[in-house]
Amino acid sequence: MRRREVLAGAAGLAALGGGAIAVGEWNPLDDGAAVDPIELETIDAPGSEAGTATVPERGRVTFVELFATWCTVCEGMMEPLGRVHEDVDEDVQFVSATNEPIGNTVTREDVADWWREHDGNWPVAIDPDLELTEALDGSGVPYAFVLDADNVVTWSGRGQKSADEIRSAIDDAGGE
User: Fold this and answer.
1) Are 155 and 84 in contact (CB under 8 A)?
2) Per-residue pLDDT tens for 6-60?
3) Which domains does the chain carry?
4) Under 8 Å between Cβ of 56 and 151
5) Do 123 and 95 touch, CB atoms closer than 8 A?
6) Predicted TM-score (pTM) of this structure
7) What DSSP string describes 123-170?
8) What is the enclosing helix (H) or strand (E) of 117?
9) What is the Cα–Cα distance from 39 to 61, expressed in whole angstroms?
């Protein structure tokens, strides 16, 4: 009986591993297709006004970061993001968006307070229906993306990134 369980487990792992490799090699953004702009609600917080923003904005290089207030790595990203934001000009759309369930466990005020506590000073938005998250195939936080002026993703990265790495990706997309 024990041998059967071990063999079944090994077969299951092999099948799962093969599936993970197939999924890991496919990226829907690799085809060079433009990401359709999405209207997001922006929050009243430092560097951000209550209202809406179209992300990405055609005709401008866009940097967008998906984050969550519960994420400690996201906290660590605020300082390098702040440095990059100060360094890029107005030709670059720079926005962070949370896909947390606003109104359930987190409020707009919670996000604004977190933003203030972590020295955010650029537009912050919410993605409650996960439209932007899904359009970018953003699985996890923090997840950063750079899109060129045609709204094509030219760079993406999950986890901790340096200011130099982000700035280089923006420059490579034409956002000097």
Assistant:
1) no
2) 334 433 333 333 333 233 333 445 667 899 999 999 999 999 999 999 999 999 9
3) 1-31 (no CATH), 34-172 (3.40.30.10)
4) yes
5) yes
6) 0.81
7) -EEE-TT-HHHHHTT--SSSEEEEE-TTS-EEEEEES---HHHHHHHH
8) helix 108-117
9) 17
